[in-house]
Specification:
- It is a single chain.
- The chain is α/β, with parallel strands linked by helices.
- It is 51% helix and 12% strand.
- It has 8 helices and 5 strands, in the order αβααβαβαβααβα.
- α5 runs parallel beside α7.
- The longest helix is centred in the first third of the chain and has 21 residues.
- The chain is globular and about 50 Å long.
- It starts with 5 loop residues before the first helix and ends with a helix.
Amino acid sequence: KYLDLIPERKEKIRRHIEWYASLEVRPDFVCFGGSGTLVTQTPQIVRDVILPVLKYGIELSHKYGFPTHVHSCGPEKELVKMMTEETGLDIIDPLEIPPMGDCNLAELKRLYGKKIVLKGNLHTTNVMLRGSPEDVIAASRKAIDDAAEGGRFILSSGDQCGRDTPDENLHAMVETARTYGRY
């Protein structure tokens, strides 16, 4: 039943991307959301139902000169593998650590960091929301150490920063990226 939706989804993506390409001021990239892709579906369902649509959208985006980005919360290790080996995706995030995700940033960098830009990985709650600026600096440095060598890494939170995230923590992440993150 879900496979019957693939042509309709591809058509919708085609219309959006062609519209983006027609704009006088074009977007910098095309982001395909898939929040919780592997939370509610198996890798096989993703491969059968979601991957054909994403591949189409990624190829069409590239045809029009748009870099592509997938955001998918939760366990993402298998999705990074799939996107890297089976598509031309440019950027993937948020690369959440346990317990919400299953990503080891150093491992992902070693396996896929030459093929895709990895983005993320500072824990949204324990580090960004509840941590001290020192915790944010330590986590930022670890992420940079784990994934920055050779480029293709963007330091970011491991999903979003909630409204109550202390400004000091946001500033600590940005300042660490600015000073420690040069490579």
